[in-house]
Amino acid sequence: MSPSVEQVHGAVQTLTQSSDTLFLLLGAIMVFLMHAGFAFLEVGTVRQKNQVNALVKILADFGVSAIAYFFIGYWVAYGGTFFADAETLSQGNGYELVKFFFLLTFAAAIPAIVSGGIAERARFYPILLATFFTVGLVYPLFEGMIWNGNFGFQTWLESTFGAGFHDFAGSVVVHGVGGWIALVAVVFLGMRKGRIRAGKHTNFAPSNIPFLALGAWILSVGWFGFNVMSAQTLEGISGLVAMNSLMAMVGGILASLFAGKNDPGFIHNGPLAGLVAVCAGSDLMHPIGALITGSVAGVLFVWVFTYLQNKTKIDDVLGVWPLHGLCGAWGGVAAGIFGQSALGGLGGVSFASQVVGTVAGIAVAIVGAAIVYGILDKVTGLRLSEEDEFNGADLAIHKISSTNED
């Protein structure tokens, strides 16, 4: 007997659900792997006496982020909780559970970004507390405003400017917010000891260029899961997102190569700057627009990071504010420029909404971080003692060095 229409429809629906679940699971795994990239990028940049701490921070931050987002953050952003029986949670092949995993890997990028800025002088447990509150409250507040329509912000933008704020994969929601939170944390912590000598700025050389490069490569590869799989379903997948991610990455590489005068640290951060910037409009832009977006980001990172390190007291070790904060903000605005149909994009985006949405993300990040880090600075203190900083976070916090050499 031939199957009924209902049986065929049910089989197709089950196949679609299971395929979407697998698709998003692979995306979550790719973005989870990016946290190894964050770790090795930091390990290669910091001095050898802080390498163990860099590795431990990223992993510990992920664990704290998972708890904060599971019990608080996901509810703040989407109104969903996991206080139901396993049978209910696993409906639809467990797609909603995998969606949580995918979104968690985005949320956990916030402390991974901050970690690179505050490296080499931050206390361990106070920073984990900051991670809990930024991932549980600050980040999901803006995430829910943009990706879930909370507080009517998107509705207001659409009625006022004709379109809501478009951020396909998180130039502002993830990277911009993370970068501006990091700036606040960096300001609270102050400069590392030894940066100013005889009245002049001194820059500490990266400890391990191969590790730095490995981190950049892992991040660059994982970013295609970050961007492409933000579609969240097989039906929504777009080769345009992949192509635009590629072109923005290439733009960042070449721009940082020339602007950074062959410096390997700049060259390996260049593709990351381009990828940060293209997240927002990767599903809208023409590939040439993505190339320009990535190129501008590469130059922006090199110039601003160089200025910070040589002219200011903002001691951002990995340059996470220019890389994620500024390039993320540029990406939000760039989506409103190169997403326009007049410039080869798909249209349906408002430049004014992109500017207002970007500024809103920056405001939430700064105010939220100022509250979290300000309170923790008063209550527990954020910075290692001068002696512990001199000895290095590895020995001061973890009682072990990255090598067994005396």
Automatic annotation (TrEMBL):
One of its GO terms (biological process) is ammonium homeostasis. It is a multi-pass membrane protein. It comes from the Bacteria. Its main location: membrane. GO terms for molecular function: ammonium channel activity. It is found in: Membrane. The chain crosses the membrane at residues 22-43, 55-77, 97-118, 125-148, 168-190, 211-231, 237-259, 266-284, 290-308, 320-339, 351-376. Gene3D superfamilies: Ammonium transporter AmtB like domains. The keyword DNA-binding does not apply. GO terms for cellular component: membrane. Keywords: Ammonia transport, Membrane, Transmembrane, Transmembrane helix, Transport. PROSITE patterns: AMMONIUM_TRANSP. Residues 23-399 form the Ammonium transporter AmtB-like domain. PANTHER family: AMMONIUM TRANSPORTER, AMMONIUM TRANSPORTER SLL0108-RELATED. Belongs to the ammonia transporter channel (TC 1.A.11.2) family. This is Ammonium transporter. It comes from Vibrio hangzhouensis.
